[in-house]
Prior knowledge:
Helix 7 (206-210) links the parallel strand 9 and strand 10 (216-220). This protein has helices at residues 9-22, 52-55, 89-107, 110-118, 142-151, 180-184, 206-210, 229-238, 278-293, and strands at 2-6, 27-30, 40-45, 61-64, 82-84, 135-138, 158-162, 171-175, 189-192, 216-220, 241-246, 266-268. The chain has two domains: 2-88 and 276-293, NAD(P)-binding Rossmann-like Domain (Rossmann fold, 3-Layer(aba) Sandwich); 91-268, NAD(P)-binding Rossmann-like Domain (Rossmann fold), CATH 3.40.50. The two termini are 28 Å apart. Helices cover 30% and strands 18% of the residues. The structure holds NADPH dihydro-nicotinamide-adenine-dinucleotide phosphate (NDP) and oxalic acid. Residues 66-68, 91, 274 line the site of oxalic acid.
Amino acid sequence: MSLLYKADPARGRQWGELLAARAPNLAFHIWPEAGAAEEVRYLAAWQAPADFLAQFPNLEVLFSTGAGVDQFDLASLPPQVRLVRLIDPGLIEGMVEYAVMATLALHRDLPHYLAAQRSHRWEPLKAKRPSQRRVGVMGLGELGRAALRALAPFGFPLSGWSRSARSLEGVDCYAGEAELATFLGRCDILICLLPLTAQTRGVLCAATLAQLPKGAGLINAGRGGHLVEADLLAALASGQVSGAVLDVLGQEPPPEDHPFYDHQQILLTPHIAAMTHPETAAEVVLANIRSHEAGEEMVGLVPRDRGY
Ligand code: NDP
Ligand code: OXD
């Protein structure tokens, strides 16, 4: 019985060391080395190898090495192969840092000050108090809830939007299409932490951005597919959106001449908001393998019909 790992090989070696110490009986291979194909019961991957179902006929669980599973073709996964996403304290910690950093960057007009510095202008703006800046999070899952908890002490009025109704202390919660417009109307800073599904693709489009208060800020750390990039450029040009912090793009890496690179109102980071750390992620996967073998439910099991 073996676990095959297919993601960054340097981090894979750290997984290997950790697993050798914690689970010496679990054979571990780093792609493209896979050992005996019929022994592969578990695959931990960011991108699955082509034809992996045919290659590994005894595969039982596909673990995403990230929180998202949109990189897999869910429809082609047979029902006996479980799909498990990563719910990991290391990922949550990273996203909390990023959400706070990006919110404060927009709240404190960092895009303006970076542009002013580059053109040798000393140009203070009037500062708003946190109580005057409403922050809303799309996606009230593991990451969205943690981001909201971390933002609470600053004093921003907080709201959140999810698919099903949720109740969070200190957060005005909205759910579903019917409440989206009300939610958006109270987001001076909107943070997208949604999973990418057929329902959420393109959710950050002209119609959505138009429902934000004039001059709102946008943070997208979900997936590039959530944002219609041309619509953001238009909203920035019209002043409907005043600044954006983007960690994810439709094409990663983007072409060198991508308009976001030089845009003074956009802060761009290369999909680093929350990185998978071997020391926490391998522990989570190992705990799930143990649960699976004991016939217990794994943490992060993805319901196929929901798609996230
Ligand atoms: P969860 O599955 O825990 O939470 C997803 C949330 O989104 C839930 O609240 C869910 O609603 C809501 N949601 C899903 N579909 C819809 C919809 N159609 N309308 C409204 N709300 C919806 O995910 P995580 O918090 O763990 O992760 C979220 C995403 O963050 C990942 O899928 C990934 O894309 C992204 N990510 C990005 C990283 C980066 O480095 N940039 C790192 C890690 C993750 P409900 O509560 O009703 O289920
Ligand atoms: C993830 C990511 O989904 O890093 O974990 O984007």
